[in-house]
Amino acid sequence: MHGMNSDFAPTDLTHHFLIAMPGLKDELFGKSVVFLCEHSPRGAMGLIINKPSHLTVGELFEKVDLPLRRSELAPQPVLLGGPLQTDRGFVLHPAMGAVQAVGSDHTPPAVARALREALAGLESDDAAQPERDASARNEQPVDDPNVQPDAPPDAQSEASAPSALPSAYAASLKIAGSGLEMTSSRDVLEAMACGAGPSKMLFTLGYASWGEGQLESEIGENSWLTVDADPALIFDTPLAQRYEKAMALLGLQSWMLAPGAGHA
């Protein structure tokens, strides 16, 4: 765990929570918990995990003209992931290689057979064309099948360790040390439309980003507490409890912290 009232900030806060100090007065970031997907000397990128938007997952699927054959996901809120690219969707989920996705518990047998056949075809095609241009892949964003916005900063920076397995999805960032990945391509929604996809997911619109040295400066100003991320808090904790539960990871409750106070 890490406190904010210090001149020292860890080199890499990837797979950590940022917990807003009570003194941080901001409509979006106040009382927020941010999961950091990427942190390097060039900056940081993350998703707020406790601020709901006006949409549910079911309504999101209606907007992108896809059925949702994962009924348990329909009432789940789509979150406000941050102030940038708020018209674009991001899905945080346990990492899934292509073979794992085919064998998912949420894949109906007929769909699994079709996926295996498609995967076999892709593998043979890849063997014949090892230098195939990546632009030929379908990497459409979640929110709009016709437009591909620029990826978030540092989305593929050196801070991310390469994975032994490729992602099951076209545009995913594997989050170093977490067993999680963040997907921004439409194919993850298409998998759910078939009743497949990851077993646990968090949906956001937009993301948060910090430039070089910006996050470290905010940490030094006692705007944030940091702690190792707990996937159970991301996927299994009720939304309204996430802020206090994140504080509890540090042995704290928000009332203990006066504005401007830190934790060593």
UniProtKB/TrEMBL annotation:
Give the Pfam families listed for this entry. Answer: DUF179
Q: Which residues form a coiled coil?
A: none
- Region of interest (Disordered), residue spans: 123-163
From what superkingdom does this record's organism come? Bacteria
A GO CC annotation recorded here is: cytosol
Do you know which HAMAP family this protein is assigned to?
Answer: UPF0301 (MF_00758)
Instruction: Give the protein family.
Output: Belongs to the UPF0301 (AlgH) family.
The protein's name in its UniProt record: UPF0301 protein SMCB_1570
Q: Which organism is it from?
A: Serpentinimonas maccroryi
